[in-house]
Amino acid sequence: MASAEQLVPVGFSLAAVLCWGTSDFTGGYASKRSDAFIITLVSHAGGFVLMLTLALLTHASCPSPSSRNWALLAGALGGTALAIFYRALARGDMGITAPVAAVLGAAIPAAFAMITQGLPGKLSVVSFVLAGIGIWLISRPDGSARSCAGISMAALAGVGFAGFFICIDRAGDSSALWSAVHSRVASLVIVAAIVLFRRIRFRLSPDRLRPSGAMLALFAGCLDVTGTALFIRAEQTGRLDTAVVLSSLYPVITVVLARVILHERFTRWKTVGIFAALLAVPLIALQ
Fold this sequence. Notes:
The chain is mainly alpha-helical. The chain has one domain (about 5-285). Helices cover about 80% and strands about 0% of the residues. It contains eleven helices and no strands. The chain has helices at about 5-30, 35-55, 65-90, 95-115, 120-140, 150-170, 175-200, 210-235, 240-245, 250-260, 270-285. It is globular and about 55 Å long. The protein starts with a helix and ends with a helix.
């Protein structure tokens, strides 16, 4: 049986799952009526303001230059990966982009943790594999669109997401709030540059963001950055591989909300993926 101390990082990870899954659903819903990059930009700005406010109000200790730089690098990698991910989705390769990016984003940091922190128990390895299967099945949209370009871009996005997890772990035991602030600064700059480039390159007229869309974007951004802070606490209080694998189960929340609120149907494989993910959670928690 796991001790109360061992369950603390699991609790942080599951809280991050709830925040990230709800954020993805909210941001995705808002993006149906507005430009996805504008929604992302607004959400990142909202998340940055929230974390900066909390860090200042709680008088969180300022991180060392090394921790700050690792957090900035994490945000830059995460923001770039998000741009590549959206680009791949825009090419119509959703059937392969989402699952490849999701699994690589979890598998690479887990492997990194096993190399640097030692191998976990056999039960943990089995639960990680089960969780990976669940992530793949849940993230995989209907359809079978595949292309070499789509796979390559999905792999790049997955490596970028993995880089975010690894770099934020390298930030060490510095304040989770300040680490979230610095990572969001870098990703905000990346997304803003992409929005500006698209406006100039394609001569797009400014989109009018409806108040309802702006509110949803801000809500999604606050949830997303809160999930980041919770993930940081999870990897600070436990193993990186456990935190990454558990936190990467957030698509479960997204698809459940889509089913409950938008009445979207579960495919047979998504249902199997959800059960695999749910089974992996207690196996990881009880290690």
